[in-house]
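re: ur question from yesterday

yeah so i grabbed the chain u mentioned. its 158 aa long if i counted rite. heres the sequnce exactly as i have it in my notes:
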Amino acid sequence: MLANIIPMRSINNIAMLGLLLGAACGEHKEMSTPPPPTTIPPPTSTLTPAPTQAVPPAAPETPTVITTRREALAAVGKVVQIRGTVQREKLGDTVNVGALSVRCPDFRFPDASTGSTVTAEGKLELVFEEDSTMLNGEISQGTKGGGSTFEIYHCVVR
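ran it thru and got these structure tokens back, copy pasting raw so excuse formatting
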């Protein structure tokens, strides 16, 4: 199989080069005699291994309650809890409290909860959106004005 990749002549040249280098270094080995087996002596230490301790499961992260944009910026990447009014939007339902709006893109609130107050919990991310109008005037799939939004993936209603 190797001969299909490298011509036999090259393999012979490499083998000959190896023999010549070995002879030039003054080392002489019989190629047909395997090396003598080596035995590893048993360990002489009388130390006993330390007992293993079970690691307790990590406690669930206590959610940070957010009510303002400043609190939300400080909590990006953490588990948060927001209590606000549900609003139905094209890119995902949002929970709004004052000027703060948090989108739950992968969770659809029941129709009856639209306009009512709920508590949502999950890991908060800050998502940057592209502007819908490009510099050359073309319209893209972005949102008007671009900007950023807070999102909770795997949103849980409490």
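noticed a couple things. The domain at 64-157 is CATH 2.40.50 (OB fold (Dihydrolipoamide Acetyltransferase, E2P)). also The helical segments are 2-5, 8-24, 69-74.
anyway ttyl
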